[in-house]
Design brief:
The complex is a heterodimer of chains A (522) and B (313). Chain A has 522 residues and is mainly alpha-helical. Chain A has helices spanning 2-8, 17-40, 55-78, 92-114, 120-136, 140-143, 146-160, 181-204, 208-246, 261-264, 277-308, 313-326, 330-341, 351-375, 379-387, 392-420, 424-429, 470-480, 490-521, and strands at residues 49-50, 53-54, 169-171, 178-180, 251-252, 258-259, 449-450, 458-459. In chain A, helix 11 packs across helix 18 (470-480) and helix 14 (351-375) packs across helix 16 (392-420). The longest helix of chain A is centred in the middle third of the chain and has 39 residues, at 208-246. With 313 residues, chain B is of the alpha/beta class. Chain B is globular. The two termini of chain B are 21 Å apart. Classes of the chains: A mainly alpha (522), B alpha/beta (313).
Chain lengths: 522, 313
């Protein structure tokens, strides 16, 4: 039977009925996974009513159904009703996985549902051994479907029968924590649907090599979708919460063309509605200053290390040291800034101290990525330039560094994302008032002064003053509670603004990289 | 054609076990199928009229412990094409790269001997590498244009040497050499037989050209510096037959004004384009150097004849 199948499977002209059914089951598992994810991040609640019953019951029912169908596929294939090409065994990896899963299930059921007390170990061992035998010993079609389907049937059954109902909760012994149904039910559904999806995908591929390929692909696909959904949910959460405060008082038209008080007002007494203008300006100046410090020094050091310095112990030590610096906790940089920079810049917190501290933090990443980018420039360019009688420095300036700019920009983009959100160094080196009035926004551009009588002939008092910044303001709002008559949810508005500021720096960086890539390759 | 100095194994050269040198301490100097013979000095003693453009005397090169080039001496006449041929690893590229001191860029390389350009020693501390490479240009095996526009590629050398000013300062002070640059670019591209193919897209990136066009662009870039000698390291090996024949025609034309030294694997190519040919054989020896017709029709060395007729290599 299986031999004939293997021959006929060379060309698959038409989809057979069971293949459609298996594909449908993969789809059902994907749907269950998505619903579980939605319930986990509170987009739907397990107690929501759907057609007379609640969501939990629907999920449990679907899970039960899926598990039964999967088992049906496996048994049907074993009895020869389905055209598949299974291997001798589902394999040691699947067997170990199911052993772990079923040991956990057995232990939990024995201790919690049946109440065997310390004898739960027996339950775990029996279930684990049974799952191992059931997975490893029979042919692949049974071995990879029955244990997976049974998990789904058991989980779905527990939800359906109310063993784990919508109001279920479990106080964990020894932990000051309680598990509630709105976490546990979605998690169970997601996990069991991954198993049924995997088993159904294997069935769709007819088991064997093709089945394993499709099974693994489906599993990875679902997991990646889940991770992406979590990331999206994280951003969506901030946007939903923050868009209200961000747009408060926003209007188009009127006296000024666009009125956006949250972004253009401070939090002074007479300002209404309140805004966070000083913090935005502070963050922008901090990032601009840090980048202006880190790019020339970082790229310069990278040029020296990769073009001039002899590759050997010295460059290796520098490389290790820069990698270490990049992973140094930011509070350490902040402490350095507070202890070393502040006494040298007017003995008070100032923007310039924050800029330099963040610049020191950014420097290692710019150095590492620039070095990689410069080393990746083909030697042919250097040879060609040398053969034209062009000096080394001219070659670096006109060929090597331009070819490395896209890589260098990538490093700066990554680094800016990190330093723009840093709180600890700013707290120690820059932090101004918690809710500054608009007048306290640093006016760096307009406060350059010429002092013609003594060096350095130019001064900028604004750079020497403390200033607020978005991450610091967010931290202050959360820890200090809401100050004064600020509207509710303002911290979400600050968070969303910070997100947007970082994204706009990204946009600038990505635009720069795109421009130079085009220039180099088109 | 019998060679009195060939050993007994010559002629029965298909036996691979005969490939080791007879002397116990001798390094392996022949490849499988290559016969053994003494190298005679007069085989490389090629005479020509006039002063040599390049005079190489007793040149030795080591890469680490590898003896890559063993005591090579040859004089290269002006305004002609000199082909360097030989099997892989015989030192012909190494020799070529010595002529503009590109081997200095390889850390492990050690070079001894003398190379004179117009009677001036280039292997001395006071030699100006920038000036040397301006006078002795080089075209590499793989086309290596810069990731810049075609125009910038051609005018790169003169710009960096300060012969052409197109920078911001020059433009602001009204001394921009844009006219000269355009003339130079057109002249160089015409010389490299590329002008008609690229004249309407000089601002495009050079990486968008085909391989053959890129190689001719590299030749144009080399010509723009106005060298006296052009070294070419297998300039056509990465190209298709049509592009190759264009490069070959170009080399023959260039020989009217420049001294061209070209390394090639392709013996037909050497026979077609060169005036004199030097044959290097395994171990880094220059075995025979003479007029191309003589080398290909009546070589003195049995090994050279075996190589040219395709018995090994």
């Amino acid at each position: 039977m299986s031999r004939a199948t293997a021959e006929s499977a060379l060309v698959r002209d038409e989809t057979t009925g069971f293949e459609s059914a298996a594909a449908g089951l993969v789809g059902l598992s994907g749907l269950l996974f998505a619903l579980g994810l939605a319930a986990l991040i509170n987009v739907i609640a397990v107690t929501d009513p759907v057609a007379g019953v609640n969501v939990a019951t629907v999920l449990g029912g679907l899970l039960c159904l899926g598990g039964l169908v999967v088992i049906g596929f496996g048994v049907g294939s074993r009895l020869g009703y389905l055209e598949t090409a299974p291997q001798e065994s589902a394999g040691i990896v699947a067997a170990s996985t199911f052993t772990l899963v079923w040991s956990a299930i057995g232990g939990l059921v024995a201790s919690q549902t049946i109440g065997l007390g310390p004898l739960w170990v027996v339950g775990a061992l029996v279930c684990g051994a049974g799952a191992f035998a059931l997975t490893a010993l029979p042919r692949e079609d049974v071995g990879s479907t029955v244990p997976a389907g049974a998990v789904a049937v058991l989980g779905g059954g527990a939800i359906l029968t109310g063993v784990v109902g919508p109001n279920w909760e479990w106080m964990l012994d020894g932990y000051n924590a309680t598990l509630f149904a709105d976490i546990v039910i979605p998690s169970m559904v997601m996990f069991a649907s991954l198993l049924t999806g995997w088993a159904a995908a294997k069935t769709y591929g007819g088991y064997g090599a093709r089945g394993r390929h499709i099974g693994a692909y489906t599993l990875i696909y679902l997991v990646v979708l889940g991770i992406l959904a979590v990331l999206l949910a994280l951003i969506a959460f901030v946007v939903f919460k923050g868009v209200g405060p961000l747009l408060r008082g926003f209007s188009v038209g009127g006296q000024s063309l666009i009125s956006w008080p949250f972004l253009t007002n401070g939090a002074g007494l007479l300002e209404d509605p309140k805004g966070i203008f000083p913090a935005i300006v502070g963050t922008v100046w901090l990032v601009v200053g840090a980048v202006a410090f880190a790019i020339p020094t970082g790229v310069g050091a990278a040029v020296f290390l990769s073009e001039y310095a002899e590759q050997g112990p010295f460059t290796r030590v520098v490389e290790i040291a820069t990698n270490g610096l990049w992973s140094t906790p930011s509070i350490v940089f902040g402490l350095f800034g507070a202890a070393f920079l502040i006494p040298r810049f007017g003995n008070s917190k100032s923007i310039i101290a924050g800029q330099l501290t963040l610049g020191f933090m950014l420097l290692p990443l710019v150095l590492i990525t620039s070095r990689e980018a410069i080393l990746a420039v083909p030697d042919e360019y250097r040879d060609a330039s040398a053969a034209l009688g062009v000096s080394k420095w001219q070659t670096i300036r006109s060929v090597v560094v331009p070819a490395a700019i896209p890589g260098i920009t990538t490093g700066v983009i990554l680094g800016v994302g990190r330093i723009a959100g840093e709180t600890a160094p700013i707290l120690l080196t820059t932090g101004g008032g918690v809710l500054p009035a608009k007048g306290s926004a640093p006016a760096v551009l307009s406060s350059f002064e010429v002092t013609p009588l003594s060096p350095p002939f130019v001064s900028n008092p604004a750079l020497m003053e403390a200033s607020s910044a978005l991450p610091y303001q967010l931290y202050a709002l959360i820890t200090a509670g809401l100050g004064g008559d600020l509207p509710e949810g303002v911290e979400w508005g600050v968070a969303l603004t910070l997100l947007l500021v970082v994204l706009s720096f990204y946009a600038i960086g990505i635009g720069t990289r795109y421009y130079f890539r085009r220039k180099l390759h088109q | 054609m019998s060679q009195t100095d060939t050993t007994d194994t010559a002629g029965t050269d298909t036996d691979a076990t005969d490939s080791t040198a007879t002397g116990g301490d001798q390094p392996l100097t022949t490849t499988a199928g290559e016969s053994e013979e003494e190298i005679r000095e007069e085989w490389t003693d090629y005479r020509f009229e006039g002063e040599p453009k390049l005079a190489v005397e007793d040149l030795n090169v080591w890469y680490g412990d590898d003896y890559a080039l063993q005591s090579v001496s040859m004089d290269i006449p002006e305004k002609s094409v000199t082909a360097l041929i030989g099997p892989s690893g015989c030192g012909k590229s190494t020799f070529l790269r010595c002529l503009n001191r590109m081997n200095d860029r390889i850390r492990a390389a050690r070079i001894e001997g003398s190379v004179e350009l117009d009677g001036r020693e280039i292997y001395q501390d006071s030699a100006d590498l920038v000036e040397l490479r301006k006078r002795v240009g080089m075209v590499f095996q793989a086309p290596n244009p810069f990731p810049k526009s075609i125009r910038e590629n051609v005018s790169y050398g003169p710009r960096k040497h300060g012969d052409i000013r197109t920078g911001l300062l020059a433009r602001l002070t009204g001394r921009s050499d844009r006219e000269q640059e355009n003339e130079l670019v057109e002249r160089s591209l015409r010389q490299a037989a590329l002008w008609s193919e690229v004249e309407d897209r000089l601002g495009d990136n050079a990486l968008g050209l085909s391989g053959g066009q890129q190689q001719r662009l590299c030749i144009a870039r080399c010509l723009a510096v106005d060298p006296e000698v052009i070294l070419m390291d297998e300039p056509a090996s990465a190209l298709d037959p049509i592009a190759t024949s264009k490069i070959e025609d170009l080399i023959e034309d260039l020989a009217e004004d420049y001294t061209v030294v070209v390394v090639t694997h392709n013996m037909q190519q050497a026979a077609r384009i060169s005036d004199q040919t030097a044959v290097f054989l395994t171990g880094g020896y220059l075995v025979e150097y003479d007029e191309t017709d003589k080398i290909f029709e009546n070589p003195e060395s049995q090994r050279v004849e075996d190589y040219i007729t395709g018995k090994f290599g």
